[in-house]
Specification:
The chain has helices spanning about 1-15, 45, 65-70, 75-80, 110-125, 140-150, 175-180, 190-195, 195-200, 220-235, 250-270; strands at about 20-30, 35-40, 55-60, 85-90, 135, 160, 210-215, 240-245. The protein is an alpha/beta fold and about 270 residues long. The longest helix has 20 residues, at about 250-270. The termini are far apart.
């Protein structure tokens, strides 16, 4: 009976200090439709008038905005632990977070890196500058985290990827990529310039804090390892982690807490002049 009482008290304390989840609807002017988004707030959000740093967390191919919070409920605790907002936008079934040059109805680069951020900054207590924004994700969203972070370094100060498709050329006949950027012959230049592994050759004006990881049994392991080696050659500072794991939720459930810790440390590190 005593042990049961202790367990109930612990359960009560856990819920007392857990974060809370909003599901917001954001109108996309670029695509002329409403798109949903999850916002995870720390428990302190209601009690204090603090402003918070934000991590934008992207889903993978065939996924949606609710995947992360549904499959990794620990995110509510991490929002508390690291005192930040976690925002999970919707990237469509297979947008790859591109503004498609072929389809004006697919403008998810604009949606995530402009429309979502404007909405979050207008409706939540954020610290609205790049030094307090990070973006990462899994698989297609891992590509998105690095792709958007690199292209919008004026918006994000840190970016990352978990099991990311960091070289889209490794998936030439898969995952609808050709529907977004064209076939590999007529639109060969898109396949070159829009691949993260090539984009890093053109450094953004603003420096980025970068973290990415991949499981050694993942089908994207080799491209991630090549990206790491290329960054070393180009002297681009980054954190790279490889560990046993596959392209699945058990891996991402484990990986995300390390990435959130990395971003927390970045947000709270004193700026150097």
């Amino acid at each position: 009976m005593k042990n049961l009482l202790i367990a109930l008290l612990l359960a009560g304390n856990t819920s007392l200090f857990a974060g809370t989840v909003d599901t917001a609807t954001i109108f996309s002017s670029s695509m002329q439709k409403n798109i949903k988004c999850v916002v995870i707030k720390p428990a302190s959000y209601k009690k204090k008038k603090n402003s918070y740093a934000v991590v934008y967390l992207l889903h993978g191919y065939s996924g949606k905005y609710s995947d992360w919070v549904r499959l990794v409920p620990g995110l509510l605790r991490y929002a508390d632990d690291f005192q930040l907002l976690i925002v999970c936008p919707d990237g469509g079934y297979s947008s790859w977070y591109f503004d498609s040059p072929l389809d004006s109805a697919m403008r998810y680069e604009t949606h995530v890196s402009s429309e979502v951020i404007q909405f979050i900054d207008a409706n939540y207590r954020t610290i609205p500058n790049r030094r307090h924004r990070a973006i990462t994700g899994l698989s297609m969203g891992g590509h998105g985290g690095m792709f958007l972070g690199w292209r919008h370094a004026d918006v994000y100060g840190a970016c990352g990827s978990m099991s990311g498709g960091v070289d889209i050329n490794a998936s030439r006949l898969k995952y609808d990529i050709s529907k977004r950027i064209g076939d590999t012959i007529a639109y060969a230049d898109n396949w070159k310039k829009l691949a993260v592994i090539n984009m890093i050759e053109q450094r953004p004006a603003d420096s980025l804090a970068i973290i990415f990881d991949c499981g050694t049994e993942d089908f994207y392991y080799e491209p991630n390892k090549r990206l790491h080696q290329k960054m070393l050659q180009l002297h681009i500072a980054h954190d790279y982690i490889e560990r046993p794991g596959q392209h699945n939720w058990p891996y991402w459930q484990n990986a995300v807490q390390y990435q959130l810790l990395y971003f927390h440390n970045y947000f709270t590190k004193p700026e150097t002049r």
